[in-house]
Amino acid sequence: MKSPNERIRKPDWLRVNLGNNTNFATTGKIIKDNRLHTICESGKCPNLGECWNRKTATFMIAGDICTRSCKFCNTKSGKPLPLDTNEPVKVAESIQLLALKHAVVTSVDRDDLPDFGAAHWAETIRQIKNLNPNTTIEVLIPDFRGNNELLDIVIQTKPNIISHNIETVKRLTPIVRSVANYEISLRVLKQIAESGIAAKSGLMLGLGEEKEEVLQTMKDLLNVGCQYLSIGQYLQPSKKNIPVVDYIHPDAFEEYRKIALSLKFKHVESGPLVRSSYHSIDYLS
């Protein structure tokens, strides 16, 4: 019998290719030279090689230290440094250098700031638009503690897609997420959708959820106007994170994709290696 702390062996379908071409090196250099952060690195994303090879990355603003400590996340947690006021311009310039047609930006949670980072978010989006008027923009935002006025600061900058991840089913939310609340996340998505901007969310599997709970989460998201959905396999990034309960077979991910589309989501990415920003430009095609 396996001990409670023994890891389940990863199946072959979770093997990934590392980046090794010229584009990979160029992407890394631009990020390093501008002293920027990416969720690709901090989150140990399995698609880092593929994405950087295609000269794309998901920028992470507001530093690399999060004020929360969600049990699934590998991002550092603790007391963040002050905001870099030059970061919005540097992100915009990096997007220009990479010649991105579609840019994706996320952030750490900044519960230490009076506005939880909303103004910094808005300035980043404005700078991206100023330097890259033909680039579509997707932002993956925190919940701003459910504050409608702060969320509106981001909404008013009108990115093409605003994403906020529900992460897991309602029953597991208190176990997996340190501060975020299932109902608050739904309210955030509802406010986004009601603004007329496309709302997107992401769901991790393999944490012990039941199929009926996944289907209910899909319905909850649709009921608040969420149009786009990503579904991926949770991978334990380190021993300090919550362990994987199950590795979901690719066939099951394909079944969930078909169910979600039958429920009338506009676009769904579902697979073991899918992450929030994976193939994100396809959501707009």
Describe the protein.
The protein has 285 residues and is of the alpha/beta class. It has one domain: TIM Barrel, CATH 3.20.20. The chain is built from ten helices and ten strands. It has helices at 22-33, 39-42, 48-53, 87-98, 118-131, 148-155, 173-176, 182-194, 211-223, 250-262, and strands spanning 37-38, 58-61, 65-66, 76-77, 102-107, 136-140, 161-163, 198-205, 228-233, 267-270. The strands form two sheets. The protein has an eight-stranded mixed beta sheet with strand order 1-2-5-6-7-8-9-10. The chain has a two-stranded parallel sheet with strand order 3-4. The longest helix is centred in the middle third of the chain and has 14 residues, at 118-131. The protein is globular. The termini are far apart.
